[in-house]
Specification:
15 strands; 12 helices; D-Amino Acid Oxidase, Chain A, domain 2; FAD/NAD(P)-binding domain; globular; 8-stranded mixed sheet; alpha/beta; 7-stranded mixed sheet
Amino acid sequence: MNYDYDLIIVGGGPAGSTMALSAAKQGLKVLLVDKEKFPRDKICGDALTVSSVEILQEFHLIDKLLLEPHGCANNMIFYSETERLMPPSMNDAQYISTSRRWIFDNVLFQAAKACTETKEGFKVENLLMQNGWVFGIQGTSADGEKQEYTAKVVAGADGCSSVVARKLGLYQSLKQDGAVATRAYYRNLDVSGSELELYYLPECRPGYFWIFPVDKETVNVGVILFDQNLKSTGIFPPQIHRQLIQSPLLKARFLQAEPVGNIQCWYLPLAKTTRTIHGNGFILSGDAAGLIDPLIAHGIDRAMVSGKIAGELLGSICRGNDYSAEALQPYADAVWKHFGYISQFAVKFRDRLQHQPLEPINSLFYKSKGKLIPHTTGENL
């Protein structure tokens, strides 16, 4: 069969754009499509880990991002109701710690656009399939034209509501073991620009409330609630967000704060090694693969790492003639080698936070024997 492309990537976020950059570096003919036009926003905590920054460095994108508004923290501070834990400073390579997604994703997408073919405003509506094999996409272009394209491999990097995963019958697995988070931006909030703050409080534990400066004027504030929280409280996440802002520990901080927009929510599919992320002619990456960290719930780094892995491995696979599930198995193996063990550690630590709520947070963190801090900052990816 004559294919239009070696690789079609659905979704131009961190996973898809990183995969496009990596695959182009391998000499592949790539089509990257996204239903939106860039720049566009994504609801997110906006935090970058060390591994995210390292990939940005690899593709020479740090300087471009530093020209845009960003946060530059070098410490991550953990709080409980009565304690404050300041771990060692983050890796010296951490030039940048936060970037609003409409900025960050656009820098990545424009870099991918410079070396691959892209289609913005292209809505994928179906997959081209034959005998259980994926060999392309069907959709509608930005000007309303129905189009279809074929490829040796189709990559779903289209987020937690992935059309690719839905069409393959894999979407339901993304709804198993998840979390919900809120996000709101504020100005005039008293913060130290050099710190990312995480609060493990009774209202949200084993989840946490965060305060992340994203530029000199703006702070990203939100709360992450795991399935355990939602089932035990039955409270709508924005309610908990508002309760925490008015809590005794935080109320004074928010007296003069000015909201920038509304509180927004999004769903996070947490990493689970039993989840299928590849098959005949396809792979899933980033949130579409359900790779989000089960403890801190960072996902940008895991999206970028999985995209980079895919691009590198597909270089050799697409030069051959076998695009079967067996041929693509090394991708799944590499992804779970990176994320499997640390995700299992994260789940165990999260369970301790839930079932031992009275144990001092300092005690819990130090019992992790040094695993938690590199896990949190992404240094072990």
